C-alpha cells in the first residue's frame, strides 16, 4: 500500500477520545510502514509536538497531520 494512504488509514483509526491520543499519533508517525517517519526528514513528529497543548481539538490535530502528508502526495511523484 502507498505509505501516504497507509498513514491516513492508521491515523484515522486513532481514537480522539483516548487519553493516549498524542502517544497514539506518535506511534503512527513512527511506524516504518507509513510516511510519517520519512516526512521532511522526520519533522512530522516535531509538528505534532509543536501543536500539542495549543487548544486544538483532537479532530483538528488529525486533520492537520493528514493535510501535511497529502501535500507530499501532490508535490512529488516519488513514494516516500
List keywords for this structure.
about 80 residues, globular
Strand content: under 5%
The arrangement of helices and strands along the chain is: HHHH
Ends: how far apart?
12 Å
**Averaged pLDDT, please?**
84
The profile of the biggest β sheet is: none
Shape: globular
Specify the helix fraction band. 55-70%
What value does the Rg take, in angstroms?
12 Å
Number of helices: 4
Can you offer a commentary on this structure?
The chain is mainly alpha-helical. 56% of the residues lie in helices and 0% in strands. The chain has helices spanning 3-12, 21-29, 44-51, 58-75. Helix 1 (3-12) packs antiparallel against helix 4. The longest helix has 18 residues, at 58-75. The mean pLDDT is 84.
Strand and helix layout:
Blueprint lengths: L2 H10 L8 H9 L14 H8 L6 H18 L5
Helix pairs in contact: 1-4
Amino acid at each position: 500500500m502507498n505509505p501516504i494512504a497507509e498513514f491516513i488509514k492508521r491515523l484515522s483509526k486513532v481514537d480522539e477520545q483516548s487519553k493516549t491520543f498524542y502517544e497514539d499519533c506518535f506511534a503512527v508517525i513512527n511506524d516504518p510502514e507509513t510516511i510519517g517517519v520519512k516526512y521532511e526528514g522526520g519533522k512530522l513528529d516535531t509538528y505534532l509536538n509543536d501543536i500539542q497543548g495549543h487548544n486544538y481539538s483532537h479532530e483538528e490535530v488529525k486533520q492537520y497531520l493528514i493535510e501535511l502528508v497529502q501535500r507530499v502526495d501532490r508535490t512529488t511523484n516519488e513514494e516516500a
